[in-house]
Amino acid sequence: MRCSRPGCSGLRNIAFDRLRREKRVVFVELEQDFTLQDPAAGPDAQLETAQRYRLLETALAQLPAEHREILLLREIEEMTYDEIALILELNLGTVKSRIARARTALLAKIER
After folding, report:
1. Does the pTM of the predicted model rise above 0.85?
2. Cβ 91 vs Cβ 85: under 8 Å
3. pLDDT tens digit string along 42-57?
4. Residue ranges of domains in the chain, CATH in brackets
5. C-alpha span between 42 and 29 (Å, rounded)
6. How far, in Å, CA of 83 to CA of 64, rounded?
7. Is 57 exposed, middle or buried (0-12, 13-18, 19+ CB in 10 A)?
8. Which end of the chain is least crowded, N or C, by CB within 10 Å?
9. 105 touches 67 (CB < 8 A)
């Protein structure tokens, strides 16, 4: 299902641009310091949460781009497998297997 014609990779960029315009996706640089902490949590809990986010960011950064991309679309943007297949121009089975491999790779990076 992947397009082999020149310019097809532009379709992916068009899809991402549309998601940005519709405010469905907010791209944040991994180096940018941001926290999603519970203001009611104590300092120890806030520190632990911040450390978990840094660990996750580091692990995601170590994944191949295709794994990172598909995980973000599924887990952060909560897209369906069909939507991901359409945007990335992949077969549905490829999307499912790539997500499974990406999750396994991410867990392996986090457990190290």
Report:
1. no
2. yes
3. 777 777 878 888 888 8
4. 64-112 (1.10.10.10)
5. 27
6. 21
7. middle
8. C
9. yes
